[in-house]
Amino acid sequence: MSYSELCLFQKGLVSFIKLTALLQMTALLLLSSCTRPAQDPGITFMVADPGHFHAALVLKSIYAGVNPKVYVFAPEGPELRDFKTRVEGYRSRAENPAPWEIKEFQGPDFFERMIKEKPGNVLILAGNNRKKTDYILNAVQNGINVFSDKPMAINSENFNQLEKAFAEAKKRGALLYDIMTERFEITSILQKELSLMPEVFGGQLAGTAADPGVSNESVHHFFKFVSGARLIRPPWFFDTEQEGEGITDVTTHLIDLVQWACFPDQSIDYHKDIQISSARHWKTDIQRNQFMEVTGLTTYPEYLIPYVNADSVLQIFSNGEINYQLKGINVRVSVTWNYRAPEGGGDTHYSVMKGSLARLEIRQGPDQKFKPELYIFPVAGDQVYLDGLSGAIAQLAAKYPGLAVETIENGYHVQIPDALRPGHEAHFAQVTQNYLRYLKEGSLPVWEVPNMLAKYWLTTKAREISQIR
């Protein structure tokens, strides 16, 4: 072989080796793509300033597709310690532990650091409501998804910020959503389902301001137990400038249920669909020893002194009522805060939807042993109505196994098996799973954002009206 032939042979051999290597690499890449699906970037939670126990309740369960590392940014103090204690309890429990790995960052610049480092893509917010709307707006402006406890606004200035935040979230592809756990309470679900069955409910009655077509009432308590442990409230919880008044806080749940049940999957435009008839607020008296018991403090902080009377009683506007029309239906929502529930009791919910054929009523008082129960009171309880009701319950039982109905005085009681009653704390996992599904799909249902805006416009506007009285 001549020298020139040898050179040609070597060049050819080198080309062959390169081609073989390229083919091998291509084959490996193809094999990899066939055997391993494209990697989902996944979800990583961040938590900022967790001053309310609801932040920990979101982490009571573990979720598929969510990074077990949770990045917590907060100032040092008892609220952060309480949050970590609760999450550690969920991590270490014997049954179905939730093995979160908490990575915490403390300091006065915690929020700025979170925005700068951005180790996660979903921010969980549950804490001081005076700061919350600022946190929401700042987060979505930086492309961070926000999963927020209610309320997301406690005054009209906050509402204007919130409206801007939703516009920013849309522009930047972030999902901003509030934690509406009450949609997952089985009596609320069944009340809604039955109201959509004409043979049971007929049509929704508009009612009047004095006798509304829909009423929702809620009673809450400052002293309570959560996850088996006595709840220690932060002292700012009693400051309406930081927590918000009752009319802007718990009423968000009640208004949400009305919109969700009466106009399912429909958008509410607060500019034209809502008219407020009246709104009022009133005070709850908290004795000094009660305040000490529920906060662990021995004195009132300076910012609460303006709410303390000459007898050292703390008086706060934690109660409120709104009467309004929603697309022509007269609605009343009201919330009351007492110090402590009666023995064996807890927070309660009372709800009425009045139809042309029947009244659907949720009761949760002593007669129900403080467990929510659903009742149907027909206008005419004849055999024809009972046949229609029996068929409706059988239809619902296919979706909610174990449902039945029993006859009571003047109506019927819907019998709900315990398997359909996971409890309030379990609803946090259910609403979180719903939100994670929306994140995966890349959008919220089209009606959710306008309905959140309608809800917070109503609460903050009602607060203004109640203060004029």
Helix content: 25-40%
CATH fold-level label of the largest domain: Dihydrodipicolinate Reductase, domain 2
Q: In what order do the strands lie side by side in the largest sheet?
A: 10-11-12-7-13-14-15-17-16
Overall mean pLDDT: 91
- Tell me the name of the CATH homologous superfamily of the largest domain: Dihydrodipicolinate Reductase, domain 2
Structural class: alpha/beta
Tally of individual helices? 13
Give the strand content.
Answer: 15-25%
Weakly predicted, low-confidence segments: 1-11, 13-40
Quickly name the level 1 CATH class of the largest domain: Alpha Beta
Number of distinct beta strands: 17
The dominant shape is: globular
- For the report, how would you describe the main beta sheet? 9 strands, mixed
CATH architecture grouping of the largest domain: 2-Layer Sandwich
The CA-CA distance between the termini, in Å, is 109 Å
Any descriptors?
single chain; 469 residues; Rossmann fold; Dihydrodipicolinate Reductase, domain 2; 9-stranded mixed beta sheet; 23% strand; globular
What do these coordinates show?
The model is unreliable at 1-11 and 13-40 (pLDDT under 50). This protein has 13 helices and 17 strands. It has helices spanning 3-35, 54-58, 78-92, 110-117, 129-141, 156-172, 186-195, 198-201, 251-262, 288-295, 383-399, 424-441, 448-468; strands spanning 45-48, 69-74, 101-106, 122-125, 145-148, 176-178, 214-223, 225-226, 229-230, 274-286, 314-326, 329-340, 348-354, 358-363, 373-378, 404-408, 411-415. It has 469 residues and is α/β, with parallel strands linked by helices. It is globular.
